[in-house]
Amino acid sequence: MTDIGILGTGRVGTGLAARLSAAGHRITLGHRRPEEAATRTTGPAPAPRITFADHRTTARTTDIVINATPGDSSLARLTALRTELAGKILIDVSNATRDAADGLPADLCYPGSSLAEKLQAALPETRVVKTLNTMLFTVMTAPQTLATPPTAYLSGDDENAKRTVTGLLGDLGWRPEQVEDLGGISTARATEAMILVVPHVLRQHGFEPFAVSLAR
Fold first, then answer.
1. Which residue from 82, 167, 179, 191 has the least number of CB within 10 angstroms?
2. CATH superfamily entry for domain 3-205
3. Do residues 212 and 140 lie in contact, with contact meaning Cβ atoms separated by under 8 Å?
């Protein structure tokens, strides 16, 4: 059992919280207004191992932190938590984009770089691992729902951190052969750029589950 903090209480954050809690982990969901987040949570009541706290408390009191905040503001939000995140593994599942008029991603916020690289540079005492950012959010916690096995890419400079994250991916239903370690954190610029294909897929097919995957 691991104490996992998730920053962000949207569809991504709550979905990950539910699945990781079901796998036996203790989850703290971080929100700027935790009391409000707890009262507006829809669906079944949160599992006993899920609690709510503000972002700073969430980062300080957990061992692994998942960034599920909007990518265009993640850097500022997490840089403010530098002390709390020191020594932790930070799993970044967000994409930093500027939206088109229809609300779908249009451009990258960090062309020639990536959110993950920016986070690692801003948080040198934190081990950043990028993953799960190349799929519709429903696939993150249910990879088996796709007819074609999807791929979860990993980017990060710390090998031990990537091994830990691979274990958590297993708890989410990802098989070892579905996890592709691309190398250091600089490889995240490739997977983050994949988001640019997503709006075209969504406009053609709607919000059907999909992933940008590696076929062999």
1. 167
2. NAD(P)-binding Rossmann-like Domain (3.40.50.720)
3. no
